[in-house]
């Protein structure tokens, strides 16, 4: 088929169309004009993507982009949106809050954008949320895990929804952190450890949630360190941790820093497992950390994609589409995020003349979205969080991530 996607990645990429071979064809498809199959009778509606398409985290960001493109293409083929046809517009946030803010402003200024899938980083989501909310554009994240994004400054004591336009299909750090703590304490039998985080929103929040549960279980945190995410040499932290002799290191952050930290810990004589959250769950972590990464651990949201029938089909469809980048850890979640917006659009676009007319209706319709996604059941609570709380623990074995425990967190 000819795959139509308007792809804009800030200053680094041009608007382009992408032709990818897959099963079937669509006559008359020749770019991002929205002409469609009927020779000009299609109306264009756009789904934006905000994710890191360049830089250290681009592997995750590109997997997000392509997975949304796959969801859009399949929706276009189904004809479920009538005379509306979806185009995907991707913006590169570089994993940086200020760049993400500019990307959101660009999408908000496009009156054909009805929803956005993004962001990867919780720290980027913060400045993006109010811009899209003001424009009445639905935002669905496949990867943001900081609980404050949906439940306000005091998510545990007095939760309060901040933006009605914001949803996410992944679970949060208030679930992922404790899940990791229980795994290390109960399953791995590690009763004392050290923590390290990168001082960013995601990393610090994850370590805070982990530490609270780990201590509650009876575990001892013998050291709590931080690193500078702009550096790649951690000699001082390694020396400090080695002196405390922890039995494991729990890391809050992402794989570009976690991998060299793991490598340097082992090289420094502290041969203990490093465990992180979904931010390190990528083949890139293993590639960067090297052979010493065997035994390292990670948690990620949901069950392994390949363990679910719908997940297997998603991976098959993704491969058949011929994308040059793998779906990575968040591909399935990005697909479900895109699909959730599409499900809402089936309601909001039914009687709409323009996209702008349907923006608020799309936000309203999201509250009732419920479907069996490729990651499992997708539905949202009153704060915009996915009601599914399934997570998986993974261990690096023979140079590959291997799932070792999947369960619903209670």
Automatic annotation (TrEMBL):
Residues 1-21 form the signal peptide. Residues 45-399 form the Leucine-binding protein domain. Keywords: Signal. The keyword Lipoprotein does not apply. Transmembrane segments: none annotated. PROSITE patterns: PROKAR_LIPOPROTEIN. It holds the Pfam family Peripla_BP_6. InterPro entries: Leu-bd (IPR028081), Peripla_BP_I (IPR028082). It comes from the Bacteria. Belongs to the leucine-binding protein family. This is Amino acid/amide ABC transporter substrate-binding protein, HAAT family. It comes from Janibacter indicus. The lineage of its organism: Bacteria, Bacillati, Actinomycetota, Actinomycetes, Micrococcales.
């Amino acid at each position: 088929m000819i795959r139509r996607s308007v792809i804009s990645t800030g200053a680094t990429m041009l608007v382009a169309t992408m032709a990818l071979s897959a099963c079937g064809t669509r006559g008359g498809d020749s770019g991002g004009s929205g002409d469609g199959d009927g020779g000009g009778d299609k109306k264009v509606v756009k789904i934006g993507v905000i994710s890191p398409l360049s830089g250290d985290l681009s592997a995750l960001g590109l997997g997000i982009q392509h997975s949304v493109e796959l969801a859009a293409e399949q929706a276009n083929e189904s004809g479920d949106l009538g005379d509306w046809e979806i185009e995907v517009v991707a913006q590169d946030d570089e994993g940086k809050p200020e760049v993400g803010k500019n990307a959101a402003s660009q999408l908000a200024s496009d009156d054909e954008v009805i929803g956005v899938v993004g962001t990867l980083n919780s720290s980027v989501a913060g400045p993006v949320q109010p811009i899209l909310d003001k424009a009445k554009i639905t935002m669905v994240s496949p990867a943001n895990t900081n609980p404050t994004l949906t439940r306000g400054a005091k998510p545990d004591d007095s939760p309060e929804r901040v933006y009605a336009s914001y949803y996410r299909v992944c679970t949060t750090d208030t679930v992922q952190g404790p899940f990791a703590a229980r795994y290390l304490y109960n399953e791995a039998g590690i009763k004392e450890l050290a923590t390290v985080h990168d001082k960013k929103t995601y990393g610090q929040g994850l370590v805070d949630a982990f530490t609270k549960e780990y201590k509650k279980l009876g575990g001892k945190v013998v050291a709590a360190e931080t690193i500078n995410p702009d550096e790649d040499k951690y000699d001082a932290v390694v020396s400090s941790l080695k002196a405390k002799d922890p039995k494991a290191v729990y890391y809050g952050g992402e794989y570009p820093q976690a991998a060299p930290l793991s490598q340097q810990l082992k090289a420094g004589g502290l041969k203990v497992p490093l465990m992180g959250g979904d931010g390190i769950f990528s083949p890139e972590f293993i590639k960067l950390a090297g052979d010493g990464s065997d035994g390292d651990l990670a948690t990620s949201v949901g069950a392994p994609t390949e363990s679910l029938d719908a997940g297997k089909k998603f991976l098959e469809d993704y491969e058949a589409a011929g994308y040059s980048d793998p779906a990575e850890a968040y591909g399935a979640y990005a697909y479900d995020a895109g699909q959730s917006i599409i499900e809402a659009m089936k309601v909001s676009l039914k009687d709409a003349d323009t996209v702008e007319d349907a923006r608020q209706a799309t936000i309203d319709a999201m509250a009732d979205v419920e479907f069996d996604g490729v990651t499992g059941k997708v539905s949202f609570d009153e704060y915009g969080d996915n009601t599914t709380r399934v997570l998986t623990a993974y261990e690096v074995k023979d140079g590959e991530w291997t799932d070792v425990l999947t369960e619903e967190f209670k």
